[in-house]
């Protein structure tokens, strides 16, 4: 049975920069939202915004019509579902689990099969758009699953999404689309970082470089979105370096299994790995520019600039 904002109960598991915005969008749409996170302060902020905070995935999922899982990776998703105090056993039959973590398509298929055996639905629904769009309810969802899963999740997805792509009738297809996006996103961040640091090495005015490139054919969404972090000297994480260590690592694993060459993605992965190994793993992914600067002796802006 389809839910409405007035009658629907949604659980959100994970209140990081993305999950908090998604939970807020659901609250604004009128849903009754219960959420949990490993960080008690995140739960407190959610309660202050009008939601109901609980301690475990099982408590969040109890009585829910839709469970939205916004964690980092496949291992965390599996723990949310099937670990101690996991959501799966607490979800009423017919509830849909919306999995938004980026993961290998094969793992998405395995998790879906295991959950669907219990009479619950699984929607493979990674998203794109960043924290700002999450807060605005304007995310892009790359989703796949059964018709029943889509029908059950649609009202909640509409509260969180600017665009909802329905990409197939089985889990794994949404995950595969997301990995194509992540391949491009990671390469574009690495390329943008390389270009900006190279400009600094040439002694160019970096603010003018940004102005010129964003009006020229060499621009990309990632250059336009990430290079202001470099200009401001602010590497507080909007999306961390280690996210792309993970995601481009998944791309490598998928490509190796298919015996498909991905040399450009492999080079980008090495830059993220070096940035992480240099102590920047939890910093903003634009920190790849800092790595280039360190190697080449280029000078990038600091916060006081």
Can you put this structure into words, describing what you see?
This protein is of the alpha/beta class. Helix content is 53%, strand content 12%. It is built from 13 helices and nine strands. The strands form two sheets. A six-stranded parallel sheet has the order 3-2-1-4-5-6, with helices on both faces. Helix 8 (173-201) crosses helix 10 (221-232), helix 8 runs parallel beside helix 13 (288-296) and helix 11 (241-258) packs antiparallel against helix 12.
Give a brief description:
This protein is of the alpha/beta class and 305 residues long.
Estimate percent helicity. 40-55%
Shape: globular
Mean pLDDT: 96
Secondary structural class:
alpha/beta
The H-and-E topology, N to C, reads as: EHEHEHEHEHEEHEHEHHHHHH
Q: Total strand count, please?
A: 9
Helical segment count: 13
Task: Note the quaternary state here.
Answer: single chain
The unreliable regions are none
Strand content: 5-15%
Strand order of the largest sheet: 3-2-1-4-5-6
For the largest beta-sheet, the strand count, sense and barrel status come to: 6 strands, parallel
Distance between the termini: 57 Å
**Rg from C-alpha positions?**
20 Å
């Amino acid at each position: 049975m389809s839910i409405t904002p007035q009658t629907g109960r949604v659980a959100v598991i994970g209140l990081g920069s993305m999950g908090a915005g998604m939970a807020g969008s659901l609250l604004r749409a009128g849903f009754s939202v219960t959420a949990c996170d490993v960080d008690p302060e995140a739960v407190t902020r959610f309660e202050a915004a009008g939601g109901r905070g609980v301690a475990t995935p099982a408590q969040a999922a109890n009585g829910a019509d839709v469970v939205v899982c916004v964690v980092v990776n496949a291992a965390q998703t599996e723990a949310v579902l099937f670990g101690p105090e996991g959501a799966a056993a607490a979800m009423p039959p017919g509830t849909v689990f919306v999995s938004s973590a980026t993961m290998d398509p094969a793992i998405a298929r395995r998790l879906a099969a295991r959950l669907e055996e219990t009479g619950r639905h699984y929607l493979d629904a990674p998203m794109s758009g960043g924290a700002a769009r999450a807060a605005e309810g304007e995310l892009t969802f790359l989703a796949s699953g059964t018709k029943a899963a889509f029908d059950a999740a649609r009202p909640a997805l509409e509260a969180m999404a600017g665009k909802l792509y329905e990409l197939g009738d089985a889990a794994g297809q949404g995950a595969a689309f997301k990995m194509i996006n992540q391949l491009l996103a990671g390469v574009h961040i690495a390329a943008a970082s390389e270009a900006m640091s190279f400009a600094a090495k040439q002694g160019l005015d970096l603010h003018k470089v940004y102005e010129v490139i964003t009006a020229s054919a060499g621009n990309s969404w990632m250059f336009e979105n990430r290079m202001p972090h470099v200009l401001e000297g602010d590497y507080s994480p909007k999306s961390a370096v280690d996210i792309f260590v993970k995601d481009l690592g998944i791309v490598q694993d998928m490509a190796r299994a298919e015996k498909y060459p991905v040399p450009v993605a492999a080079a980008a992965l090495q830059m993220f790995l070096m940035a992480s190994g240099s102590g920047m793993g939890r910093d903003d992914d634009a920190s790849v520019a800092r790595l280039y600067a360190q190697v080449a002796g280029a000078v990038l802006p600091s916060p006081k600039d």
